[in-house]
Please model this.
Amino acid sequence: MDTIVFLAHTESDGSLAKASLEALTAAKSLAEGLGAPLAVGLFGADVAAAASAVAGCGATAVYGVVGGAFDVPRYATDAAAMTALCQAASASIVIAADDSRFSRALPGAAARLGGRIDAHVAALEVRDGKPVATRGFYRQRMAAEISRSARPWCLTVSSGCFAAYAGAPGQAAVTAVDVPVSEAMARTAPKAVIAPSADEQTIRPDAKVLFVAGAGWTKKQADGAPHTAEAGELILGFLGACKASLGSSKSLVDMGGAGESVLPFLTHLHQVGQTGATPRHAKGLATCCHGEEPHVVGWRFIGERRAVNLDPACGWAQGKADVLYVADAFAVMRKVNELLG
Ligand SMILES: Cc1cc2nc3c(=O)[nH]c(=O)nc-3n(C[C@H](O)[C@H](O)[C@H](O)COP(=O)(O)OP(=O)(O)OC[C@H]3O[C@@H](n4cnc5c(N)ncnc54)[C@H](O)[C@@H]3O)c2cc1C
Model:
């Protein structure tokens, strides 16, 4: 029988990230579907709070690798902690979030354990008593179903595909797993964390709404002139007021490279579409964006879609949006921001 192990690292405040709680839901439902035991493996500076947060998940055991060396993301210590936790729990199926730490170090742990790994899993089910993982390829255009007999089988789960575990906290006895840290393992040391402030960070996977800006924001408007500065203010005003996530069309982010007047807060990381990202927000609002297929293909996981465009024949009108407002996005967003206060 398989033993399912959910792996997570703590955040700097000792909590578990939402992506990890989503991976826990995946692990828990797989264990339930297989009728297999579930164990939890945690690592970080202190795992007590995280263990208490997952105490009600039905795990038969909670293992912890604890120490300052495991607080920071670093391949050597992360891979060692992951390997030791899997060994301690006799893991045969390992499930973790596909965040940067697991994406980097779990493949190494899988190799050390003589196992296999599949990443970016979007769904897990039990068929004929066997686990089957689904993931997308070619920008989610193809869905592959993967099953393996090799064990341990490590799986990293994409965020936004499972509901975050929200069981009541409780008491969990943590079995300590010792991982000696040699000097060589810790020779990579973080000196500082340089991160944009919450307001500067406009890609927000956990936001309720995705706001997409298209090239129309920088084009000549009815008065014959572009109003790029005002466009920037309106977009940032909206993002600041409702903490939406920002996406962009390719045309708009490409303009930066072409030396045209652009919105300075946009980068290629904001691009949504065939050659960009495929976000998973519940709602999306496209503004000044034509809604061409290579762009809209990136909206496949967006629940409710709305668009604002001057052109009643734009792509969004061709069945690609639930609601198309044929209107001037400058006027609409000015009013929306006013209403948001
Ligand atoms: C191989 C390939 C891959 C591609 N990959 C991607 C991708 O990943 N993502 C992507 O986005 N594109 C991609 N594209 C490009 C895509 O085909 C489109 O060219 C692009 O999405 C157009 O961007 P846009 O809608 O912002 O600009 P435009 O086509 O210039 O549209 C601007 C829109 O703004 C509207 N507008 C102007 N002013 C206002 C106003 N005041 N109020 C309301 N509306 C206004 C106009 O009516 C117009 O519809 C790809 C193309 C190819 C060939």
Observations:
- Residues 79 and 108 are 6 Å apart (CA to CA).
- The mean pLDDT is 95.
